[in-house]
Amino acid sequence: MSYCKQEGKDCIIFVTKEDHEAPSNAELIADDPNDPYEDQGLILPSGEINWNCPCLGGMASGPCGTQFKEAFSCFHYSNEEVKGSECIDNFRGMQECMQKYPELYPQEDENEGVAMGGADGATPAPAEDSTPADSTAPAPAEDSSPAPVASSDSTLSPPTPESAPSSDNTPPTDSQPAS
Amino acid sequence: QTSAWENDPMFSMIKIDFSEEKKFCFPLYSRMEHAWGLPLTAEPATVAPAEVPAPTPVEFPSHAPYLLIGGGTASFAAARSIRARDPGARVLIITDEPDLPYMRPPLSKELWFSDDPSVVDTLRFKQWNGKERSIYFQPPSFYVSPQDLEKVENGGVAVLTGKKVVHMDVRGNKVTLSDNTEISYDKCLIATGGVPRNLQVIERAGEEVTKRTTLFRKVEDFKALDKVSRDTKSITIIGGGFLGSELACALGRRSADSDLEVIQMFPEKGNMGKVLPEYLSNWTTAKVKSEGVTVITEALVKAVSYKDGKVEIKLKDGRVVKTDHVVAAVGLEPSVELAKSAGLEVDSDFGGFRVNAELQARSNIWVAGDAACFYDIRLGRRRVEHHDHAVVSGRLAGENMTGANKPYWHQSMFWSDLGPDVGYEAIGIVDSSLPTVGVFAKATAKDTPKAATEKSGTGIRSESETEGTASSPVASSTPEPPPVPEQKDNYGKGVIFYLRDKVVVGIILWNVFNRMPVARKIIKDGEEHADLNEVAKLFNIHED
C-alpha cells in the first residue's frame, strides 16, 4: 500500500466515500453452519432447541426454567394441526410459575404484544443461523457488543411482522394462553 | 431456520422478538439489554428476620454438584449456562464480596453520568436505548437460598456471600472456607478474578497516604470515590489505560460543575499508550484533556508522601503534584491463591491459572474470566481482562462443565468510551507494539465531531447521523468558512488493524459501530490480506 502514510511502524490511510465505493476484493472464508465450535442459534442443526442460546436470556435458567423448557419443547415438537394445542397445561404451568416471581417476569399491560421476556430482562431473539442477509456478517452475533441497537436493517436476524420496534424494548408482558 | 411457527398464534404467548438480535447477547450489558424497570437494592445481607446476627452460622450445603468460586461476571455466565444445559442443576456460587453478581463496566462509566442523585444507592444506569437497568445481573428473587439448594425441586443458583474459599482439595473434590466449613463438589469453576495492583511507593508511604488512595474495582470503591469527588478539591489518577482513562473522563466531566481538579498521570506518552498506535494515543489524549482533565504524560512516580494536608507525588523528573486523593489504576493482579492447595499451574508469562483451550485446569476444574490464562486456538495463549471475555469464557466453562468439550473459539470483544468523540470497540490482540494499519474516513467540510448527546445519562457517545454543516460557498463577506479539520489530524472514525506476521490479530473499530461481526470474522479467518484497505471496505466506515 504505497499510498499509506507511514509513522514508524504504523500506517495511516485516509479514504473518501468514493475511495470505498467499489466493492471489496478481500476474500473471506465461507462459514460452515455446522461447525461445532461456533456458537449456535436457537435451533441446533439437529433440530433441537439450544437452551443456552443467548437469545433466550435467562428464561431457561431461572426459577421457571423447567416450566419454560417444557412448554417451549412441547410447542416446538408439536405436530398438531393447531401447533402446540396439546401444550396448554405446560404453558399454564409456566405462567403460574412466572406469576410467583413478578420481579423476574414482570407482567405488562400494553397492547402491543404478549412478549414474554427472560428473567434478566432480555426478551429473547434468536440468532438466525441461516445464511445472513448481509454476506459480510457471519451469524449469529452473540457478542456483548455495546453497539447501539441498529434499526431493522442490521445485519442479522430479519425482522418479523410481530416484532416490536427496536427502540421500544418492552419488558415481558403477560402471557395469555390461547384458549 | 424454522420460521414457520413464528407467526403461530399459540407461539405468540412466548413471543420471541426476532428483530432485536443484539439484545440476546448474553452479557446483559447495557446497550443491548432490556431493563426490568425494577428498583433493585443490594441487600442480600439485610434479609429481614428479627434474629439478629449472633454468630449463628448460616447453614449451607455440604455438597454442591456445581461449585463456582467467585461471584463475578464469569461465574454468573457459567451458572446460567449450566442451568440452561443441565435441567434441574444445583449451582452454588461462593463469593467473598457482600454483593450478588453484578457487571463491572458501569462502575467506571455509566454510573458516573447518571442524573439520579441516589445512583450510589440504586446502582442503576441508563442503557444505550434509554432504558434503565441495575448493575446486578439478577435481583435477589432469582436466586435460591443456600440452605434450600439441595432440596428445591428444579434446582437453582444459590449465592453464598461474604465467604472465602481458602483451600482446595482436588483429590477429595472439596473446598474449605475461611470459617473451616467444607463443601464438596462434582464440578468446580474457579472464577476468582483479581485484585487491583498498587504502586510500591504508595504501599510504603504510610497510612496517611494509603487512606487517601483508592484501588478501584468493586461497588464499594465506586461509592467511596463518588463521595471523595464531592468532598475534595483534587483527585489524581495514576494509570493511563482503560480504567484510569475512563475514570479520568468521568471525574473530568463532573469537574465541569464543581471546582474539582482532575489530574491523570502515567508513564506512557499518551492515553491508552499500550493499546493505541502513537498518533491515535496522542489524539485521544487531547480529547481527554478537553474533558477537563490535566494529563501529565511520561510521568514516573518516585515517591508519595503526606505533607501539609496534601498528598504529594514526586515524579522522577522532579515535577511535584499536590493533590487530595489518589486513584491507582495500574493493573490487575489475578487471584491465584488456590493454586497451591489445589496443585494448579500458574502461568509465568501472563499470570493466572493455566488452562487448555477448553478452559480446563484439571479434571473437574475449570477456570474462566480474568484469572484464566487459556489457550486461544487462533491467537495463542493469553489472558484477557474484559467484561465480554468474562461472559464468553464463563459461558463456555459452563458448557464444558456440562459435557460440551468445546474450545474457546468465539472471540470476545471489548470497548471503551472516553468523552463524546472517542468511542471504540475492539477485538483480538490490540497491542500498540504491533504494526498497525489505520484506515480513516477522510474529513470533509460536512463532518463535525459527533455531538455529545444530552440524553440524560445515555450518551457518552452519539449514534446520530453525522451532523452536516452547510457547506456555504465561499464569499468574501463570509466571516470565516466552516473549519475543515486538518485531515492528518482528524481521526474521527475508522478501523485499525493490528498485524502479527502479516495476519490481522486485532481490530479496533474507531467511532464505528455495529460492525463487530465482520471484525470477528476477519480475526477468525486468520488470513493474510495483501491490501488492508480492501478489508477496510467491508466495514463501510463512511456510513453510520
UniProtKB/TrEMBL annotation, chain A:
Top-rank taxon: Eukaryota
One Pfam family here: CHCH
CHCH domain location: 64-100
Cellular component, GO, one term: mitochondrial intermembrane space
Classification of source organism: Eukaryota, Metazoa, Chordata, Craniata, Vertebrata
Renumbered residue ranges of the record's region Disordered: 111-179
UniProt protein name: Coiled-coil-helix-coiled-coil-helix domain containing 4a
Organism, scientific name: Hucho hucho
Matches recorded under InterPro entries: CHCH, CHCHD4
PANTHER family named in the record: COILED-COIL-HELIX-COILED-COIL-HELIX DOMAIN CONTAINING 4
Biased composition (Polar residues): 163-179
Keywords from the UniProt entry: Disulfide bond, Mitochondrion, Oxidoreductase, Protein transport, Redox-active center, Translocation, Transport
Gene3D superfamilies found in the cross-reference section: 1.10.287.2900
From TrEMBL, chain B:
UniProt record similarity statement: Belongs to the FAD-dependent oxidoreductase family.
Cofactor: FAD
MF-aspect GO terms: DNA binding; FAD binding; NAD(P)H oxidase H2O2-forming activity; protein dimerization activity
Keyword DNA-binding: yes
Catalysed transformations (reactions): A + NADH + H(+) = AH2 + NAD(+)
FAD/NAD(P)-binding domain sequence ranges: 67-393
Domain Mitochondrial apoptosis-inducing factor C-terminal: 397-525
Example GO biological process: positive regulation of programmed cell death
Annotated region described as Disordered, given as residue ranges: 445-488
Protein known as: Apoptosis-inducing factor 1, mitochondrial
Protein location: Cytoplasm, Perinuclear region; Mitochondrion inner membrane; Mitochondrion intermembrane space; Nucleus
Main location: cytoplasm
Extent of Polar residues compositional bias: 455-478
Subunit structure as annotated in this protein's UniProt entry: Monomer (oxidized form). Homodimer (reduced form). Upon reduction with NADH, undergoes dimerization and forms tight, long-lived FADH2-NAD charge transfer complexes (CTC) resistant to oxidation. Also dimerizes with isoform 3 preventing its release from mitochondria. Interacts with XIAP/BIRC4. Interacts (via N-terminus) with EIF3G (via C-terminus). Interacts with PRELID1. Interacts with CHCHD4; the interaction increases in presence of NADH.
